[in-house]
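Re: beginner question about structure tokens

> Can someone show what the tokenized structure looks like for a real chain? I only ever see the sequence side.

Sure, here's an example I had lying around. Input first:
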Amino acid sequence: MAKKEFRAESKRLLEMMINSIYTQKEIFLRELISNSSDAIDKIYYKALTDDNLVFNKDDYYIKLAVDKESRTLTISDTGIGMTKEELENNLGIIANSGSFAFKNENEAKDGHNIIGQFGVGFYSAFMVADDVTVTSRALGSNEAYQWHSAGADGYTIEACEKDNVGTEITLKIKQNTEDENYDEYLEEYRLRSIIKKYSDFIRYPIKMDIQSSRPKEGSENEFEDFVEEQTVNSMVPIWRKNKSELTDEDYENFYMEKRYGFDKPISHIHIKADGAIVYNAILFIPEKTPFDYYTKEYEKGLELYSNGVLIMDKCSDLLPDYFSFVKGMVDSEDLSLNISREMLQHDRQLKMIAKNIQSKIKSQLQALLKDDRDKYEKFYESFGRQLKFGVYNDYGMNKEVLQDLLLFTSSQEKKLVTLDEYISRMPEDQKYIYYAAGESVERLEKLPQTEMVADKGYEILYLTDDIDEFAIKVIMNYKEKEFKSVSSGDLGIEADANDEAAKADESENKDLFEYMSGFLGGKVKKVKASKRLKSHPVCLSSEGEVSIEMEKVLNAMPSGQEVKADKVLEINVNHQVFEAMKDAFAVDNKDKLNLYTNLLYNQALLIEGLPIEDPVDFTNNICKIMQ
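And the corresponding structure tokens:
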């Protein structure tokens, strides 16, 4: 029997395949099972047009058998089989796909499709096997043939005996090396786990002889081993079932089975798309953040299937970063896969799916926000930060998508509110959406800068997350209303008698303010009379784009950069403390004036949550006052 050589290009491709095309050796089993499924599908298609052929699904299956002594793994099927010519064409010329040609001749009209679009998948067997034997008998033929190859050197084909139609592939598993444990492909538990991972939803039964134990008859304490043929795959995936057949519990069980998380999902989305691209998807919005969610180690992405066969564990292209918390899967028959099926050749289909998925996720979150506020707030507690970062990231490119999903604590409602809810309550004379940024609601409620805004009856949004103010700055305005910090230089509140009085105070105390500013030596841009303070003696405000809160956040980052806000020290000229300062200035008591200025400046820093430069000096100054 003469050995035939692979064609030169095929020989090179086989060498590449064995060494580099697939990232994981376990993929070989996915490929061989997919080929077996294709072979059964082909009989199904023929039965549609051949009245003499009856397709009884119960007669068709795929079976795995292991012989540890001879180190062989056999995958057999009851599919259409191959003639001698087909063995030659399909297995002798790498990348010539019988499935692809068959698919073109028999376009699916009822949801069935041929998985193996490339003939190369079969050769992944050589990643784990020293040699491969294929025994096949074609439908309608009494003759069987055996194809055999030990790798790139070539192959043989000869006639043989086979009782039934179908194909049997026997792999002689390699010996272990220092780097690779090939024994695992002879272990029942390992084979089952690979099937569960990649081929659980192949539509035909995948059978194995499973060893189990049971109590011996007539004995409670003694057990006996027995072997039983079992189906090890689920076959019908949940996403192919009608939504009306499924309960919340079914979706939750699927979430747990796929180990998407150890929590219960807050909500799920079941998509059956039949438009320009056909796909099914089940998406979950989790309740809790994974332990590594806000770290570099976290990988976003959805499981990607092609016709029920797992292609990628985490396809990151299906989710935008701001929805990276979403778990789930997508199954499409329309994807153009590369030679190893591990990557996509064209991203047009993927972009269409991703765009649709983004829209569905946003709609689901809006529905939760509207119809089940408690659930949404629970979700927001875990993932609101990610939405806000999504607004800030990419120069605000996604703010229109996300801004209606944001929540902030309201000074009036004492609970989380949306920007739309805030706008709906604004008085007619209110120009801006006011906010205060700081570490906690408790601290912000006591902030001196809020007094004037609150006295006008205006609602204030409390921004307590370090990303909040950056996100608000990017949004800039919402429904034609600009955002304004209560600490900004100009609050935009209509001029009244207080304004005129403040201008008079500013003019009257100009020399005192200039002296204080000079004494502070550039720590503040200027000192001025405050329009906003009622009961407090002092506060800091800021001018320019960088607020005091943003300064704190940026300087806390590990980049080493130092950012300074343009600070303004505002003095309440109606406070008793200021009267004491005026008296000291009038009699030219520089020591007392410097002491008061230093104390007021440090007091303003403490109110803002900023560190004071010299705590010992500050406490000594307080002692001087007390004496």
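Each token stands for a local structural state, so reading them left to right follows the chain. The first helix runs from residue 8 to 21.
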